[in-house]
Recover the amino acids of this structure.
């Protein structure tokens, strides 16, 4: 979450405040996400939210690169 590139290229990472807001908007349990160290990608994809989709794409690229 903290390493995802910004859409406009001016920075990196999503902040916790934004993550909490995204979770609340879609009924996801932020404390569980933090405790478990993540969330199933499909739950984020199912939101259809552009930021969530961007995060999933980034995470998948990181995994493909062995990170």
């Amino acid at each position: 979450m903290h390493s995802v590139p910004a859409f406009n290229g001016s920075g990196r990472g999503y902040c916790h405040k934004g993550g909490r807001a995204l979770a609340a908007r879609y009924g996801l349990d932020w404390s569980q996400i933090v405790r478990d160290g993540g969330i199933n990608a499909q739950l984020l994809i199912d939101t259809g939210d552009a930021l969530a989709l961007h995060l999933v794409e980034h995470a998948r690229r990181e995994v493909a690169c062995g990170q």
User: Anything to note?
Assistant: The two ends are 13 Å apart (CA to CA).
